[in-house]
Amino acid sequence: MNSYQPETDLLIYIIAGEPSGDNLGARIMAALRKATQGKVKFTGIGGPRMTEAGLESLFPMEELSIMGITEILPHIPKLLGRISATVNDVTIKKPNAVLTIDTPAFSFRVAKKLTGRGIPLIHMVAPSVWAWKPWRAKKVAGFLDHLLTLLPFEPPYFEKEGLASTFVGHPVLESGADRGDGTSFRKHHGLDEKQPILCLLPGSRKSETKRLLPVFADVCKTINSSTNNLAIVVPTVPSLKEQISQEIRQWDLPVIVLDDVREKFDAFAASDAALAASGTVSLELAMAKTPAVIAYKVNPLTAWIAKKLVKLDYVSLVNILLKREVVPEFLLERCKAELIAPKLRELLENDKAKQKQLAGYENALSYLTPENGETPSEKAASAILDVLQQRKREG
To answer: Quick check: pTM over 0.70?
Structure first.
């Protein structure tokens, strides 16, 4: 951990735009408090976790949870207004550093407007230049001062463009996804200890769940027709629970919908297999040792553009890290129940297939662990303090 001790309280402006960033931001806040012995204060934009950690958000974080090319277009006027408000807020408060976490459509626009004002601009979660738009590495190097990456192979892409970068490890390692209590979950929900449980994770955005739930419904009906006493559980976020519950009422299947993060990990531990949207949740499932199938579909226009631009064999980070398909993927036009159901049934019924995937999980997760025994949030805090210490030396 960095040994830099500020003479007076630091003020760090943190911006997070999604639940994953909110969790990450809260852990970094705690790590910075520990590293500075409490000589740090926070302001910015965040969700419930960061608010609980002591941050008063400039406006609701949920306004920034936008994904996809066509999805973002209707929100541009409001987004531009929020960018100006944030830049003004930073200008007034004069923080020691600005840390933006993911949400590049917002974070990068804010950072560009703050360039040249003497405030170190640090961003966490690197653009996936190894997947598409490699020229973005040079672009972000033009306005950022430091980049914190989650994947070990990312720093060289940016360092060659002159942007100092630090691999801090993946925050999933601190999520608690490996500490779920499956036995407790089954007892709490009245499920038999041998009853097969299928976990559904249709995404954390309305646009995702709207497209994936109909496919997931067909998958469940197909598997239920040949699986005795199947239980289905759907962990989600509070803002989507009602929408998902309404949709699932039409399935004519017994489904448990829950929105508690701690219970989500209990559900993972209890589940025999999972069907999940592409995203960080695939790594949480790897931590929980829950065999999974990944499915994803987007707006047709977004899909067409993605096919033209994305140069990637896989979307699951487990597969990307191992350079082979350990987790079955069904994307875009292949996101169909008749293709997904057989693979999911295999994981539910074939122990050999399950164990093969679990071995791949363990291998992939080893690549995401930072060196020297620090957690990802501690490593991130160290890197932030290193930037401030260097800035102080340079005057």
So the answer is: yes
